[in-house]
Write a structure and sequence with these properties.
The complex is a heterodimer of chains A (about 525) and B (about 325).
Chain A: H1 4-9, H2 23-32, H3 43-48, E1 59-64, H4 81-90, E2 95-97, E3 103-105, E4 108-113, E5 119-124, H5 138-146, H6 158-161, E6 164-169, E7 174-179, H7 186-189, E8 216-222, E9 226-231, E10 245-250, H8 254-262, E11 268-269, H9 277-280, E12 286-291, E13 296-301, H10 311-319, H11 323-330, E14 335-337, H12 361-370, E15 377-382, H13 388-400, E16 405-410, H14 416-419, E17 426-431, H15 437-444, H16 459-469, H17 474-491, E18 494-495, E19 498-500, E20 502-507, E21 510-511, H18 520-523, H19 526-529, E22 531-532
Parallel strand pairs in A: 1-10, 1-11, 15-16
Antiparallel strand pairs in A: 2-3, 4-5, 5-7, 6-7, 8-9, 9-10, 11-20, 12-20, 13-17, 13-18, 14-19, 21-22
Helix pairs in contact in A: 10-12, 16-17
Chain B: H1 2-32, H2 37-42, H3 48-57, H4 64-76, H5 90-125, H6 130-144, H7 147-161, H8 177-183, H9 185-211, H10 214-221, H11 226-237, H12 239-255, H13 258-264, H14 269-278, H15 282-310, H16 312-316
Helix pairs in contact in B: 1-15, 5-6, 5-9, 5-12, 5-15, 6-9, 7-9, 7-13, 9-11, 9-12, 12-15, 13-14, 14-15
The chains are: A alpha+beta (about 525), B mainly alpha (about 325).
Family (chain B): Belongs to the binding-protein-dependent transport system permease family.
Membrane topology (chain B): Multi-pass membrane protein
Pfam family, one (chain B): BPD_transp_1
Chain lengths: ~525, ~325
Amino acid sequence: MTDQKASEIRNLDGHDESKKITRRQFIAGASALGLSAALSPALVPSSAFAAQGPQKGGHFKMGMAGGHTTDSLDTALIADQVADCTNYALRNNLVEVDHKGNAVPELAESWDASKDAATWHFNLRKGVEFHNGKTMDSEDVIFSIRHHMGKDSKSGAKGLINQIEDIKKDGKDKVVFTLKTGNADFPYILNDYHLTIVPAGTQGEQWEKGIGTGGYILEAWEPGVKSIVRRNPNYYKSDRAHFESAEVLSIADTNARTNALRTGQVDYMNRVELKTIHLFQRAKNINIIQVNGGYHYTLAMLTDTPPYDNNDVRLALKYAIDREELVKKFLRGYGSVGNDQPIHPGNRFYANDLPQRQYDPDKAKFHLKKAGLSQHTFDLHTSEHGGFMDISTLYQQSAAKAGIKINMVKEPEDGYWSNVWLNKAFCHGYWGARPTADMAFSVAYSGKAKWNETRLQNKRLDELVLAARSELDDAKRKEMYRECQMIIRDEGGTIVPFFKDYVEASNEKIGHGTVSGLWESDAHRVIERWWFKS
Amino acid sequence: MENLTQLIFKRCLASVATLFVISIIIFIGVELLPGDVAQAVLGQQATPETVDAFRKELKLDLPPMVRYGAWLKGVAHGDFGNSLANGRPVADQIGWRLGNTLFLALLTSAIAVPLAICLGMLAAFYRNTLFDRCISISTLSFISFPEFFIAYILILVFSIQLNWLPSLAAVNENMGLGTRIYTVLLPAMTLTCVVTAHMMRQTRAAIINVLASAYIEMAQIKGIKRLRIIVLHAFPNSLSPVINVVALNMAYLIVGVVIVEVVFVYPGLGQLLVDSVAKRDLPVVQASGLIFSVVYILLNLIADILSMLSNPKLRQSRI
């Protein structure tokens, strides 16, 4: 709860200026709610960056976790940091979500919706050229979006855009989307990192050439090793793409990244090791960048599988976790406590009147006894992946104090998402921030959601999510989303122990504006947004 | 020399059979792993439909025997196929990485082998003195630490404190030989620490073994200096076990250095193999596995040949 991002995300999809609150107000408010951890001193230099204007030129080197030799630049397959950041250097979305959480034009110049929010017209920017010289038009947009649709698509965005009924062109510079049901947040969906625009007809090995409309042209791409990009002299944005060239080095080992930044071999690194961050902060010329946009961990119980089909069991397990301790010990303060539902306090639809669930061994005991399972041992499936083991261990101990026996079942890191998650009755997961409340609910809590990690089937919740989606009255919408949060918190199968900050670091030569917390690395757009200070 | 060519011929035939068996074992191994490339690549994003679509595209819905047959046919025609994960030709991915791996292995060998043999000779020369014990203790300590620990210590000293050497061994194709050696010096030093002890101890033991022979006693009686006896009389006759150990260590340097590659971000074959196994990318795993097998087989063959050449008894005998 310590960063400026939180306050800006509060305005997510807000076009209403009066709703904006300053960071100071937000922090004060958050403290009053008892949500605030200590304000990190690391913030001060990071916000001071904004004062220095962007300089052109220089070779920007990034040391990144999240690169694999199996990475691809096929937009359907993009899944991790190195490919993400490379993709955003090379290509653009129709719509960009800025650091304040507003949907702003990128390749689409403007858009408008029908009254039921089911038909959307997008006017494309004219005269934008791909790196191969072709002028971008509606054909390319339709091809790029259709790439993720249909039976044969293997895209990670498939679930997200199956709400699209049809896409049609209306001349060269206009595209019309028809949705199955109205969605007031549709432009936000077009900011998804899979939905970047490529020339129509891109196929096979052409994907790896990285042709797009972006601020940089691909010079070298070796999956799992590095990508090198050089500035696109034809770029249509004049206030972006400041570096002359950039290089994304895939550095899986945290120590190697840290050393590389300390010795000046890279200018920027992601995923700073929190266990040693207090030592790292002492290093000269290093700035820690900390942002929070709603990235959260979950412990998911399958609500259709005994004993987790009993809400008392779920409540007992929710009361048995010590959230404050996890934030303090596991996150070293780089995060904030969760309240068993996915909406982050920075989101404008966050229901701030829901009481924060506290660690309460007595209530946990009570609910467990009510369920008649006081002697039961709960198998929690865990893994080295993402620090799950550390969380499980702390949880096991706090639960033991409530008389709840948790048995940790260690699963291999390899194949965790395919074999454990969504399959085991009680296991760990994590979620990146979703830019809108609708996406957060419909991706993981709606009855039909593919990633409904708790197999929650709540009719009322499903109705609310659907109704709120096309509701244009903000007050009504807020009330609906409040109820959704309450249902998930009190009846759902998810424990949300905390929201985790993205913690990254750069050397002092690097300048940037306010960093977005939507995804890591300034929402993956670090290469086109940041610059070298003179 | 006749039996030597015979040996090489026989061993080559056996190697082909071995490689065939290895490829089957790798294939079965990867098949037995839970999940497949479609699930692994899509990861948390996988849904039943996307996984099915992906499987179909990659022909993973065909029975295993058919897929193995198709792969084998390709290899027999010299085509290792394309990576399942990103569709790039396997040969493109492996070629330059193999070059990097061999470069690091050769550089390390160029440092470690002479170093180990000299230390071994000196240890034999000063047998059971304080000097001998010091060499043994220090090299054995190095081999006892995990590789990454030695790597981090070296990085701490040479990159962070002294700022002499880069902590990332980020080589690229435009580098000259000098720069390239400078860039990979730290990983080479780390690996030298790891492999020296084994070779040094073997050299020492082999020489000491030979020192008990009658002809060494003869040489001593003739009044030849001890150092000369060791270098010129004892060492050549203890070459055979030393060659074997050197070959084994060189094989290790090529196939087993993935941790050092990760710590120094060195783009070698090890990292590729680990990533490909994690993603169940069978063609890449197969190709890397076969390369590693070939390395083992070749180095063992070379070791055997050199042992024979260095040993007159073996040179004359029939196999």
